Amino acid sequence: MRVSLRQVYTFLFLIGVFFIPFNSYEGISFLGEYRKDGAIIFFLISFILFFIDAFLKMKIKIPGKNILFQALLLFIIWLIISTLLNIDTVFSNYMKQTSGLSRFFRQLISLSIALTLFITSYNIFSKFSVKHSFYLLRRVFLYSFIFVSIYAFFEILIVVFNISYFKSVFSAFDYFPFTETSLDLMYNRISSVSYEPPFLAIYLITVAGWMFSYILTSRNNIKYLPTLIVFVLTFFSGSRTALIVVLFQFIIFIWIVFSANQKFNKIIQKFLMLSLTLVLLIFLFNREKITEVLETKIATLNFKKNIETSISNRSRFGIQYTSLLIFKENPILGVGFGQQGFHAKDKYPKWATRKNYEFDLYYLNNKEKSFPPGFNMYTRLLAETGITGLLIFLFFIFLIFYQSKKLIKNKKNQDKIVPIVLLISFIGFSINWLQFDSFRVFGFWICLALLIQQTNQKKTENE
Questions:
Q1: Would the pTM of this model clear 0.70, i.e. be above it?
Q2: What would the DSSP string read from start to end of 279-315?
Q3: Contacts of 461 (CB under 8 A, 6+ apart)
């Protein structure tokens, strides 16, 4: 059987989707901030093959007439304009053996890599119906989630419940691609196949809506299992962000579903009753250990105490605060895309840097080439692109929410599932950007491509 180039790059794209959470290996240095992501290898090869195929056929689809794409394009143009208007300081910026101009181009390349994923996704989805694309993606997400869950299950047994017998079995995961096993025996947190808990949190936020959707589409009782496991992994990851965001995603999911269809209401009520029963049974069989774990996790939600005692939290809030100081001095244009770190080095507050090894070893150490993260997309954009750039970006996010909600309102019951999942996912990504400052969120670009495909299809149906 002859295999076409399109089938090859589609298959590689789906393999990339499977490997989205895998980033615990040493990595490939020249890929920059993507160096640890196993998925990017397949996404880039998929894009190259797609581009060759498109070039040979002289056919590539760009959603130029779609308002979401136009808003994204406007935002990218402003990133370039704001940098050009700051060209004098960009040329003079130098830190960590990197010039301001070099930093700008590196950040632009990083964003371009994310855009290649969007373009590849959009062209692959355009070959199928929205429904087919959705179920194909969800199946791959499920396979990936199953592997992540099995890995995490052994991790929980060893780290949380101190069953060291499984360590030899656990070490076998080292033989799987892009995976290097490690155990957090100090803080008793899990990260599964991801580098550390925050990246597992991003993955859980990415797949939450897709796993929730099984409650609505499957007919057997196993349909509740993916959602339950999402909450279990979120709980044991120890990530406050994941715990809050995934819970919020689920609350919004319930609210939308209850207002969408009476049939869905009964399904959700059954799930809530089942969940409550399971929690009570688990608590009864292992009350002391569960109580201990619960007390530990609840203590992590004490933000005031964590800021005072946690070095990483002081670093995070200190850098976000510094971004606002930079914005205060450059409110309209910002300082240019990728330039935040240069302007921040002399503005970090003493309460953040005092007795903080992260600033001494990493953020203010010129021998360490990696730049300090901004820890917040919105404060980063305020600093680098000014209020203008942030407003354009927020308008882009608003359009995403608006289009998703519009599709939910206009679709028939079964057809509502796709926009519901997309809206839940986008809510998660948007909240997560309050503590993450990179466009390297694979799920966002994949969901954006699927949303644009669905809005275009809806427009065609109405014509």
A1: yes
A2: HHHHHHHSHHHHHHHHHHHHHTT-HHHHHHH-HHHHH
A3: none
